[in-house]
Amino acid sequence: RHADAEAQRLFGEAGEDLVGRRLPDLLEPARDENDLLLSLLRTTVDRTPTTFAHLTLRRRDGGRGECRGSLSLGVGAGGDGSEVILTVQDLAQARTIQGEVRRVDQLAALGALGATIVHEIGGAVQAVQTLVDLIAPQIPEQSDESRYVEKIQAELDRVRRLADEIRTLAQVEIRERVPCQVETLVTDALWTAETRYRDKGIAVTKRIPALPVLAGDPDRLNRAFLNILVNAFEATPAGGW
Of 74, 67, 47, 48, whose CA–CA distance to 7 is shortest? Predict the structure, then answer.
């Protein structure tokens, strides 16, 4: 009596061509599930739906389709139970959806792993950077030791860039936002920058107005302030302000 748009798509035929067709003509023969369905269709009078995990369709254009579905008896136009209702779902479409769900789950797991890795790298790099900042002023310029420090600093910068790439790919927040005191973060970043560029003799004046507490990631905010200050120290000539 009726074939909806999805049934027309699955069977590859127009609605008017499907209505009135015999079910055996629509199913691929010699398939276990198909034969079982046809056997039940000939013998059952139970209106409880019978489900099928796999049916193979035979399309008029010669193609074949795979679906799952259910068979049940309904009340026909005359009030009897002569109407057969076959409900089908495209298995290819279902597999695509399942594949997308698995992919999303995998990406979420990868993002969580990336966040953990970046967090651990950040803590280790910050610890090494602090030690480098402490020992660098004590090492004579142009000495072998100073070149070692330069090499360590270059490697630290490379690891930071790698961690930033992992963070971008993971597309996740590394931490939950917590209350942050901006003045403290700026002061810490300024101390690091001044220590790193102490040999340039740059005079620094700090003016920070009273600011409200902000919600954020203190490590990332500190890194943002430090990047700005490093750029400023790099651009300022020796003995400048």
Answer: 67
- Paired with 3 in beta bridges are none
Tokens of 108: 């979420």
What 8-state DSSP symbol labels residue 27?
Answer: B
**C-beta separation of 52 from 25 below 8 A:** no
Which tokens in the block code for residue 150? 């330069």
The pair of structure tokens assigned to 32 is 């276990």
The pTM of the full predicted model, rounded to 2 decimals, is 0.34
Query: Any idea which residue has 């198909």 for tokens?
Result: 34
CA distances from 63 to 3, 28, 86, 106 (A): 19, 10, 20, 34
Q: How many CB atoms lie within 10 A of CB 195?
A: 14
Q: What is the pLDDT of residues 5-38, one digit of tens each?
A: 777 777 777 767 777 666 666 777 666 666 666 6
Do the beta carbons of residue 157 and residue 230 sit within 8 Å? no
Distance (Å, whole) CA 73 – CA 82? 7
Kindly provide the residue ranges of all beta strands, DSSP E only, lying in the chain, ordered along the sequence.
50-58, 64-74, 83-90, 178-180, 214-216
pLDDT tens-digit readout, 125-170: 888 888 888 888 888 888 888 888 888 888 888 888 888 777 776 6
Nearest by Cα to 157 from 218, 230, 236: 230
